Every structure is written in structure tokens, then in C-alpha cells.
Amino acid sequence: MPTTREHYIDSDPQVFWATFILPRLTVIEGVSPRDNIDAVVHARQLLDDELSAMHLAMCSLRTRRNALSLISALPAEILARIFKFYAALEPSMRYRGHRLGWIKATHVCRRWRDIALQFPGLWSDICIRLGMEWTELMLSRSKATPVSIRRDVTEAPQRISDLTCEHFRHTYELELVGMPASVRKFVKALPSQSDTLEILTLGSVEDDTTDIEGDNSKLPENIAGCHLPSLRRLTLKGLWVPWSAPILRGLTHLEVQLYGTHIFNGARTAATGYLRTSHETLFFALKNAPALEILILRNCFPSGPWKDRQGDVLQLPRLKALRLAGFSAACCGLAKRLQIPASCQVQLRCSDNADIAGIFPFLTSHANNGADLPPWVACKIVAPCSKGFRLEMWRLSDALEATADKPDIPPSVDADLAVWFRNPERSLRPLKALCQALPLQSIGRVNVSINVDCSSRDWIDMLGRCTEIQEASISDDSAVLFCRALSMTTAGKPVAEMKNCVRQHLFLGKLGFLRLIDVDFRTWQHETSQAEHLIVQWFAERQQVKAAPELCIELQTCAITNEWVDNLQGVAAVEWDGYEGEQDYADEGSDA
């Protein structure tokens, strides 16, 4: 065995370690499984000790090896910053099989683990779903750093509640989800003051409680009655707070949603505290938050008529999103008194049967403002939507691309302007009035799904002012008369009866692409001809108009025949998915 430093250094590694360990094993040489049990246990323990020591030696060697990698040249601060970004991309418990998320990076090597432990901010996002042990460990490692705590209060162990209360004073984000009564019970145990809290989210896990029935609870006074100086975002779902509460001051994000019945079945008496409140109390509460950027109020308005106070305007110059849901009088009364940027996204959902014409001036003014903004380029109309109508408009040209062939799926981009209103009579009159009030002239893409009777004249009344539409997606059987409207002028006259009709007079004169979805052409009857012959005739007449663009038609899940598609290809370019409808329908009434 080498006895000098030189021998240690110059020896072959394999020879050195094999030779070095042999003298350590002489004490157990000759021990076999047949020997006394105590001797066998002793020998195993000695070997385990040697293996543990060698494992530590190997870890030391790996640490030295990792120190020679290029990433080890990064300063600790830079590496910690990378971990912070990685934690945002891969949070713990993001999905099954990825329980630890970013924490696995600390298992790569000793240096990475040591750096992660040196920066408390990396552990500030407390993942309670990892269990009690990890919760306590992350809270310990975060030290005095402001932390974020999100948890479901349903059947939560008392220890979790105690930890949340214990660390409340250095919590900057607190999200407690669950039934309002359970959340209220937990909130009552929280300390009354926090100079650190910036984001507070309480209540239902649902994104929108408007259509959900349930009981609402009042936010406890120990939180509602305090002015939290750092609080900027407050979200209450199924919990309500008096509009005069100090907690509402200085917010940039205010969201109050209360449970109610379906929006188109009438709003439920959600919180008597709000119904008894005067409109001015709500108005002045919003005045105490002039820096609001997000304002979402659903089913939380005072009752009774709203007085139109000329000159009494609430200015919210930073507002980016306004979403109101409730009685038409409340939505209209509040919206008319707001002065907001033209870039603000507006969503109004009226839950009663009242005429919405009173809100047209606000919508028209808001939609026509913003000379420095992109023009309106996309529009979606759904009627009826649970006995109501929905109209949405976008300024982004690609807003409807992902869902153009899926009319029931909302686009991923929130509409810049959205109006929902109830119409139990299933009449298109209010929808046509709304279309005529809004600036649809610049719309280039439209997506319409209408399940009520819609004549060619109705189509022209709704979209006749949309002179820039180049692409249209039309769903349901009313699309047949939309095709007829395409062979007419904006005045409602068939182009076949006119001489020298020009494209400028043609309904949707710039339309070049038409997508028809879920249209059963077999159900449409005409007293003189079948639908397939008439539609081919209508498109042929349209193509006779001077400068009319060649039409490309895409057919998706439409009940048609192969022969009809062949005829249609004579007047337009056709893309067909091959669907001809349910066979049972074609065989209905046969004797077979």
C-alpha cells in the first residue's frame, strides 16, 4: 500500500482504491453466512459504514467535478435569478408526476442546493398542496421574505390555519378558496392588520359566479374594517363587503361577484346589504380608488332606479377592464357615469328583460373613441344564448382565428367590447338596433350563430353597414337565408332585378371566404325550388356583379349531398369535409 503523498498521486485510480480498501476489511475476513448471527450482523454493519464513507467521498468528487462546468462560473445571484424564472415556469404540483416542480433543480448538485437555500425569496411561493412537512419547510426557508399563500379552506387541518395566521403579517398574497361560509370562518381568525398584504382573493374557485346559485356571506369586520395600506388587488366571490368599508380604498383591482341564478333567468337577491345601499355609496366607494385598472362587479348593485345626474362623472383614467353584470338599470346607470379610456375592455351583462336602448349612448361613445387605437376588425354574434343575445367586438385581427370553426367555444382573447342581454321574445329587433348603433363599418371578420328565424332582410339590417367584411363564419340553419342575402344589395333588392349593379351596392361586397357550419340544407323548403338549386343560383347571381370577389366556401358538418357540392363548385371554390348528415334522417319515413 502506498505510504507517501507521491504514491497516492501517481497510482492508478482503480489500483489505488482496490488496494486502499483491503486493509479495512481484514477484520471481517473469513466471515460467512453460516457463522454466528452476531458475527454476520457485525460484518454487515462494518461494510455499511465503509459504503457510507465511500459514498461521501464520491459526493465530494462529484462536487469537485461539477465545479469545473461552465455554469459553475455564474455568480450565485445570477443562478438564483435563473431559479426564480424556472420556479415561475415550473411551480410545484403543477400536474401529476411533476410534484416538486422547480425544487428538483436543487437536487442537481450541492452548489445549486446551497445557493437556493441562501435566497429566501425562492421559497416565498408556499405550496400547501405538497403537504404539511413541505409547507413548514418552505415557510422556514422563506424567513422574513413576503410570501404567497394559496389554499383551499375546505377540510383544511388546523395546523395549516395556524401557520397561515402566524405568517399573515409577512404575506403579500393570500388566496383562500372554498364555500363562502368556510372562507368567512377562516378569515375571522386572521390578524386585523398587515402592512405587507398586496393581493387578497377570497371565495369561490369559479371564475364567474353569476350563473351559479348559492349563499353569500359578509366579509368579517376584522378584515373589511381595516385599511390595508399595501393592498392593491381585492377579489371577493360569494362574499360581500359594505361599499363604505375601509378595505376598498386605494385599490387597483376590485372584483366583487355574488352568487345568483342564471343571468338570463333573472338576478337573485344576492346580498340584502347591497340592495339597501344607495347608488351614491357605491359611486363614492369607486371615487376612493381613482387608480383602478380592473373593475369587475357582478350581482352586487343597489336596487331601484338610477338617477341620471348630469355632470357627476367618475373618472378612472387607468381602467383597463370593466365588467358589469346585473340589472340593466344598474349596468346602464353606472356605466353612463364613468369616464374611462377608449382602450378599456368593456363587458356588460344585463340580466333582466328591460330595453337596453338606454345604454346605447355609452356603448356608441366608447366604441367610437380612440382615434389612436386600431379599428374594430372582428365581431361575433350569438343568438339566442340561453334566451339572450351576445355581441362581441375585437380590435385584434387574429382574435377569432382559433375558434372560427367552433362557434360555441369562446376565443382565447377577451373581447374589447361585449354586450349580453336578455330577450325572451326571441326577436331580432334589439340585436339589429345594437348593430346599427355600433361602429361596424371597419369589421373585416364576422362569426355569427343564430338559432331564431332570421330573414334575408334581417341579415342586411344587422350587417349591411359592414362594408369591409372579407371573411364570415355562419352557423345553424339561418345560414341559408344569409346565402340569399349575399345575392342582394344593401337596400334589400335582388341583384338579378338590377342592371349594372356594382360591388359597392352589394351586401358584403368584399366577402371572399364563407364558412358554413352545422347547416342542414335538407330542412329548408321553398315553394318553388329546393334549397340546393336556389343557393347555387344566388351565388351565381352574386358573381355576375362587376368586381365581386371570387367566393371560397368551406362546409363543415353540414347536411348536404355530394351532388349538391358538385353543383356548387360550378360557381365557387368549395372545401367540403365530406359529411352528408345523419343517415337516419335520410331514411326517415321509408317503408324499409
TrEMBL record:
Transmembrane segments: none annotated. Residues 71-129 form the F-box domain. InterPro entries: F-box-like_dom_sf, F-box_dom. SUPFAM superfamilies: F-box domain. Gene3D superfamilies: 1.20.1280.50. This is F-box domain-containing protein. It comes from Hericium alpestre.
